[in-house]
Structure formats: C-alpha cells, structure tokens
Design a protein that fits this description.
The protein is mainly α. The protein has 14 helices and 5 strands. The N terminus is likely disordered.
Length: about 290
Amino acid sequence: MVMVAPIGSSRSGIRRSGVKRDVIREHSTARNLFREIQLPKYFLDTNILIDYGRNPAVRQRLECARVNGVTVLIAPPALVELTRGMVKAGPNHFHNDQQVFMWFRRHDLEVLPLPNPFLADLLRSVARRRSGVEPTHYRKLIEMVSTASDFEAFIKATAGTVWRDVNRADEIHNAELDRELAALGTLAKKNLGSDVARRLSRQFGVPGCHPNPVIVAQKLSAALEFLQSCMKKVKDGANPRKNNAGLYTDFQLLLYLGSPDFVFLTREDFRSDIKISPQRNRIVDLDSLRP
C-alpha cells in the first residue's frame, strides 16, 4: 500500500514549500543573471563619430559592438558639433561624414533629448527654458545628410526646414560659446565653483520649488567636477577660448552620465579633470569594446 501524505500535512507542506523556495531561487538567479548580461548604452563623442566616417577599423569596431548587443545612442551635442564641422569643411569631407549619418539612419539609432529636457526628466522636474528643438528635428537632419548626393544638395535640402541656417552653424555656435565662456569666467573670478549645483538647480522647476542641489550634485557629479576643474584653470589664467574651446560641448555630453545606464565613449582623456566622481568609470575609449 502506497502511503500518500495528505495535502494539508506537514510532510506535504515542507515538500511544497521547499519546491517553492527552489523555484523562487531559480527565478531570482535568472533575474540577477539577466541584469549582469545587460549591455550598457553608449553615447559617442564627436571624435568617435569623426573616426567612424574616416577610419574603417573604427567603423568595424563600432558595428561589431552594435551587432553584439551594445546599444548606441545619439547625443545631440555631438551630432550638432559633427554637423558644424561638416558644414565648415564644405564638400571636403562630406562623404566621409555622411557615412556616420547613414549609419544612424540605417539602424534607426535613438536620438537622446537635448540636455535641458534630459535633465528635467532626470531630476523629475521641468525645464524653465526650452529651445523648441526636438529629437524629430535631428532625425530630419540625419535623413537630409544621408540622402544628399553631395554637400550642395544637402544645403539646398535644408531650405524651409528648422535647419535652414545650418550654413551659419559655426557663426551661431561661436556666439553661444562666447556667452558661455564669459559666464564661466565670471563664476571663476568670483570663486563660485562650489555653487554650480545650486545655480543649475534653479534652471528647473518653478519659483520656490527647484530640485535639491545635493541631488543635482550627485546625479551630475562628473559634469560638475569637470566644470569646476575648468573654472580653476580659468581662475589661474587659462584661456579656454584659445586652448579648450570644446569644453562647452564636453560639459554638455558629460551631463548624460546622469543616467546610470549610459557610458560615454570618447578619445578624450578626462582623468586630470575628473578624479573623484564615480561616473568617471563610465568614461571609456574604443579599447573597452571587444573586437
């Protein structure tokens, strides 16, 4: 006679709870494993994008990474800087730079929000100032560059679009850069480097209700440490307009490290400017990508 323990007996209960524990443990292990194998999301510096257009080895490395599951994101500051350089060079490097835009379009890579709306979402707040430029506008830019037969055709295609002044991109950028560097110089002279987080927090929210500067400093630690390092150099007599005009774009790109899932792929060495922020470990070069 086969003895079967009743469903409600302690023997059956132990067996069932043991199985349940094993199942829960299995699912927990699977979830942890999934988290471990999730690949990071890379946003690329302008120098990497330029290399993609001009260096087949870099092109192959990035494409292999994408095929192997790495998510590649388009950061608007890098895209604008690439476009500005392309327009400034005229037809000289157009077809090389066009390769980058064609890659973006071919794989429908995600375009991140501009820094202000990105930070507003990150800080769970609202931006007090909006440019009106959306990711869809950048997708239109990518399409126009990708499909143009040559540089002149691209310039003609921008007529009647939000990019109609793209041939003045360098002039517009330089005017904005002069304003930002002037503001940086003022902060440096007043020794207000430690006040940057508070000043940045006041660009979001509504009067009397702004993001906590402590949270801002934590979430944007790499960008703020970089900016404070630049301010110290300016205070000591450095001329960023002459020696480091790219710092404004660098600062904007570093803001995206506020998302813990993002990795910044660059050829630039930030180690002398970012020494403390834990986000420095997510600033990597091409060697970090397996061939």
